[in-house]
Description:
Blueprint: H1 6-34, H2 51-85, H3 94-126, H4 135-146, H5 148-170, H6 176-189
Helix pairs in contact: 1-2, 2-3, 3-4, 3-5, 4-5
Amino acid sequence: MKYYSKFFKILLTFFVLGFILWFGGTVIRSTIGYDLFIPGSNFTLKPNYTNEMRMYNVYLYVITALYTGIGYGIAAISAIFLSVLSRKDFKFRGWLFMSFILFCITIPIQSYLIYLDFQLANAVYINGLRDFFAPIVQENFVARLSDAKYTTIGSVSLLAAITCVLYSIWRPLDKSNETQTIEATQNNTN
């Protein structure tokens, strides 16, 4: 079994904690955002919600953006360092290489979504926006939940992230056991 340094284990811990924070926060944010709409409708706002109630959901959405953004940033930076440290293992652990490539696919998508969250947070907290029907809220909140381009890229990013986890569990294309068996056989014959 391969020995991993404490630095590697610390990086892996940061990656896992950041990933959990980002993934869980994304699920919570979706719940907060979709609460404003009638289920099964074509994104019709619930009529019994006032403008203040709608903006409260936007506030919660923006607050949780901070946690998900930080979590994803920690996971992405840790993943890059982990890939550099384990690049020699990519040849024998295909699952590790595939997981890293899939996670790299999520980086530009999530960077763009974090940028949209920053714009919305800037308008809501720094500029004190209080109107749900303001253009910035409609563009960066409502459109993000209802527009096909945003939901598609968000879904692709989440599916790629889930696939990374599944590759880490099932470990397809893992040749490390075969290599260890061959090396052990060669050592026994010598």
